[in-house]
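Q: Hi! First time asking for a complex rather than a single chain. Here are the components, and I think there are two in total. Is that enough to go on?
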Amino acid sequence: GNSVTQMEGPVTLSEEAFLTINCTYTATGYPSLFWYVQYPGEGLQLLLKATKADDKGSNKGFEATYRKETTSFHLEKGSVQVSDSAVYFCALSDKVDNFNKFYFGSGTKLNVKP
Amino acid sequence: EAGVTQFPSHSVIEKGQTVTLRCDPISGHDNLYWYRRVMGKEIKFLLHFVKESKQDESGMPNNRFLAERTGGTYSTLKVQPAELEDSGVYFCASSQDLRTEAFFGQGTRLTVV
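A: Yes, that's all I need. Here is the structure of the assembled complex.
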């Protein structure tokens, strides 16, 4: 079946530190991969996505590369800011089934300290 | 343009009571999805409406949960009777069609005591 595993948090970093949040997946088909972010008091927002192997999604300084050989989609940012403090969810969807039927990971809370 | 709106933002009820959550999708979005996150775990798919029809309800946990979307506009999710394990955050999302981006609401935090 389809599932996503991401590193447990919380992750606490100082401002300007490098961020990596690991995400691996299991899929029956050829999925699209996503990172969603939930800022305090807000809903889920799409951060970035990749739809095929070796694609790199990027947004707001965050990047993730679709690695089919390692079934991974790790989120990275070179220099985090306090405003990046949020919960980050890795997700996949099976394009054949339903593009918006997501399988999410358990979320990783990021705390960035000034 | 208004985003996806969910009511209430937070609900605290006693075990055995009934609660109804509401979701107003973005205007013109035929597709509406319900998800929930229980006990800080992964967010899980509950069901998918296309207009007023249930396209996929494979994620509904049991028959205590009833989702409706009369008229194909807003949707309600009723839990009757509520159990302790139903506590969590219930998210709603909508999309214009199956292959365009879905936008999520802020969620309803349900606490069953």
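A: Chain A touches chain B at residues 4, 36, 41-46, 89, 91, 98-107 (CB under 8 Å). Let me know if you'd like any chain examined more closely.
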